Records
---
Amino acid sequence: MERVWLAEYPAAVPHDINPGAYASVAEVLERTCAEHRGQIAYECMGVTLSYDDLDRLSQDFASYLQNVLGFHKGDRVALMMPNLLQYPVALFGVLRAGMTVVNVNPLYTPRELEHQLKDSGARAIVIVENFCHTLQQVIRKTPIEKVITTQVADLASFPKSLLINAAAKYVKKLVPKWDIPGAVPLRTALARGKAQPYMRIELSHRDLAFLQYTGGTTGLSKGAMLSHGNVVANLEQIYAWMNPFMQRDNAIVITALPLYHIFALVVNCLLFVKLGAKNVLITNPRDMPGFVAELKRHPFTAITGVNTLFNGLLHTPGFDTIDFSTMQLSIGGGTAVQRAVAEKWQQVTGVALSEGYGLTECSPVVSFTPLDKPEWNGSIGVPVPSTLVSLRDDNNQEVPLGTPGELCVKGPQVMQGYWQKPNDGSTFSVDGWLKTGDIAVMDAKGYFTIVDRKKDMILVSGFNVFPNEIEAVVAMHPGVLECACVGIPDEKSGEAAKVFVVKKDPQLTTEALMAYCRENLTGYKVPRHIVFIDQLPKSNVGKILRKELRDDATAKA
């Protein structure tokens, strides 16, 4: 395939990267800590961790996993927490112990948590106490052997109450009651690990770094197997793309997206560690006034987010009074950036809102807007270095220029496959291309534009929501006969889930069914709209015709 898009690359961006620049993600941290030991690595709610702190504490945690728990290379360890200083400590500790990180959304319901822990085979979990009540409900059904708990104020050097009050809008003031026998506080784990000799593990590109869960092509969440080689390659690709446009000295990135999400994990948590930058963690970005106040405290050079976050900031009083003179990069991902938001952002901040495209299965970045011409144009940019993109029809044939086709990807960042799931042809083509399920067109210069989605996936504020999962939950309600879920446009979240329900119980109300969904689905998966209808449209063989429902719902929206 001819990479016509290379002509659009900025002059300082290489066409290909060296995927062997680092042996592992752990080596990225080790090199950075050696070079930037005295500099601040992370700050959260006024508390900081230097690179020396991060090196020492992550090594202590790695030693705890190895020596105290007796875990081995390749074992899975789950992390269930919001953006707190404990996250990078535990993250790098797991990786330095040669083990695999399983990121878990802390707002998961018991049902969702049980599936992910069972499927991954995680032996231990690091969890903020505020969410232990969820774990307690399912832990006996999972392979979890050890629970390491942490409080919001752990790693703080001043009274806990100050931190807890600052985060009160995100985490409940009173931790729900829980009782998990044998749970160990993170502080204790670090102390016990420090007392034992850490054993550095030799890692290769083939070793698994992350089981990053995503819906894949079906409703049940699947673990994308991201090797150290995959993640190192994507780090090098993103670095090659951004480095000519970033200052290295005194770099500060604002991290409001959750670190358990693949975009923030790689672009913020890992890339800016590679740069030796300071990472400001925002625990509760939904508190927009508090978020704006935090932004005013830092002469930040970069910020990442999704369309809804940027739009929320633009509509928060005081945002337009921030000093943006140090900002060099603002990066949107996870979901399409809307033109109105991009134009308003540039007007207010003086910096264009650059857009990237990716997916969990690609570690995640596939394409990016050239940063020497970042103005919004509706496209997802061009493929990053060492990445091939091909648009294909249902017969796996490349489509002519300007013709829509399924966006397929090859590159060193593409996952190894789904954990314990064979390739059934829906994920990889016979000739090894990852099938994204997104329908795109390419212009003569190599810019790609997403025009449709082959999958039924709904993209809510950058998070994948799969109709199958929502339907499975709704259908379990005793008052529901059958149901179907589709995505519709939504000004706030990009898309929202709408469920059509045929009642079994005539007394069933929208409020009752919505409450049931909130009990069984993470917040962003809860349908925004529920509509009761007499019957669902079906094909001759009884298949529910989601397309008819979607077209009708979209027209009314």
---
Amino acid sequence: MNTLIAEKIYINGIILTQDDERSQVSQMATRGKTILAVGDDLSQYIDAATETIDLEGSVVVPGFIDAHVHFLWGGETLLAIPAHDACSKSEFIDIIRKFAEGRLAGSWLKGGGWNEHHFTDHSFPHKHWLDEAAPGHPMVLTRHDGHSGIASSAALAIADINAETPDPDGGVIDRDEHGEPTGILRDAAIGLVMKYMPEESESERMRNLETSQNYLLERGVTSVGDMIFDMNHFRFLQDMARQGKLKVRVTAYTPILRWAEMKTLLQEGIYEDEYFQYKGLKGFSDGSLGSHTALMLEPYEDSPDSAGIYDGDWKDINLIRESISEADKMGYQSVIHAIGDRAVREVLDVFEEVIQENGHRDRRFRIEHAQHIHPQDQTRFEPLDIIASVQPAHCVDDSLYADKLLGDRCEYAYPFRSLHQAGVRIAFGSDWPVSPADPVATIHGAIHRAGWHIKEAIGLNDSLAAHTRLAAYAGFREHDLGILQAGYLADFVVLDPDFQHLDAMDEIPAGLIQAVYMDGCKV
């Protein structure tokens, strides 16, 4: 068998390789699960057995890499209460009522995705809405950003949350004028209820996995950075990889406060292959802008008594610094959630201290979200070689209300162009299920920003690189993913030629994805 002969050759395409030396070609040859060659005349790789696929002018790009998702949680939300569809109080209640029909009385319900800024009646969720929709059911519906949620009276009672319950570290219990909980729980306060929710079964995990994988592949996402919050999910995904049941490649990150447990697993030996790899620790420094828990240098414009809160992870900064340093010495990344400008500054400080302590190495520290970066801190990323792992869909969402919350500080919100011009590596993701894992929409958002502070927009080519080559780099996969060139895995997406004109489209186009390939096979 001649290994230099292609099994498949793709011709007449606009193949955007993401290889700086040969950025666009018309042909690509594959053999097995890898790319054999790219170019404009690959006739030397063809014989009578080679299958020829005519792309007929379609665009081909590397499989999209979403640098930041919550893999199994994403599938779970697709099967839970679809609160994201609600645009008013009545719709919110109706959605829950329909979901609860036929459910066992008193059983737990869950869901999420709601965003009060989409409510046309300017209402705000209250526990009474849930009680009216599904009486007696304990439930928690998370806000679309995952940093606050609304709990029913039954759920609050199970968790023994009442007027006397103190706010937990890193969280807030919203209360009415009488001091009674309204049902809104912010950041760490959500955990007061979630810990009582029954753990998902193995069959439910399998269902969530299948749902997640199908959803991602339909949208051209072939690889993800999974920000795991449940160590059971880490073990489950290892098993799925071992059994060959992963259809999407997973680069896994585990909770920074579980580092001691993770070290034990590493000492015992973990399973890794081309579909599952472990890269490091994920931590939180603050919350989210929409929940008023992003940690800011100055108070919120609409809440002058609040400048956000520290996440519970950041309570013991010495422990966090030690964990990051120890993991770094063992060759593992640390990626830290930071949204507010104070949070970004403090994470940069910690990273800089660890770098000075441990010396130079290819560590690829990342700040996840990096939404509001004070101009004085924007120039600190590149010298420290820190990656900005960002989600343009959040920029589009925040454009609805950020000016009210931050005023003039929005001038340095989501500074994609400033970071790019400063030489910072930018990796794109969605934070799915916080935002849809839709690379076409993500790239459109980076280009257009819903018309909001458009001076910080970046173009199609740079956006595509951030969702392929640079996202691969952010997860130490640049040697086999994110570029279409010889020796790389044959993960790629075929798109309608209109993809090249996203910068001229005010609205996000539908139906651009024509085909998705993993390991050279159409999926």
